[in-house]
Design a protein that fits this description.
Elements: H1 17-20, E1 25-28, E2 47-50, H2 53-62, H3 71-80, H4 112-128
Parallel strand pairs: 1-2
Protein name: LysR substrate binding domain
Pfam families: LysR_substrate
InterPro entries: LysR_subst-bd
């Protein structure tokens, strides 16, 4: 997503990787060593790394670049037009799946909410494999 004033924010068509190369991508940086040397969803060689999701949100709204955000966090901005979704060729015709895992101790199994969540995770996996 991007601000409507950003050059990518005014493109009504699917954006190719070459177009992304020309613009700053606002990337959330993990301060731990868990993801050291790895990138997820990074497409542009021009990157501004931010360690705070709120800062990235503010930078997006200000038009400093483009980037990914959790929809729930920016839904009001999308509804009001302060941010616009981008159609990236890399995500067409669908958004790629995100791996999800559940880990718990055998001697302390999940409660009702945890079991509900695990059931939904498994149902999604089974639907994707069909």
């Amino acid at each position: 997503m991007a601000a409507p004033s950003h050059p990518l924010g005014s493109k009504p068509w699917v954006i190719r990787p070459a177009e992304l190369d020309e613009h700053v991508q606002l990337v959330l940086t993990d301060r731990t060593t868990l993801t050291e040397g790895k990138t997820f969803g990074v497409f542009s060689p021009h990157r501004w790394r931010l360690a705070d999701l709120g800062a990235r949100h503010a930078f997006l709204r200000a038009g400093f670049g483009w980037g990914h955000m959790p929809v729930a966090m920016v839904q009001d901005d999308l509804d009001s037009g302060k941010l616009v979704p981008l159609q990236l060729e890399a995500f067409q015709p669908y958004t790629p799946p995100i791996a999800m895992f559940a880990v718990y101790r055998k001697d302390t199994p999940p409660g009702p909410a945890g079991r509900w969540f695990l059931k939904r995770l498994k149902a999604g996996r089974d639907n994707d494999q069909q």
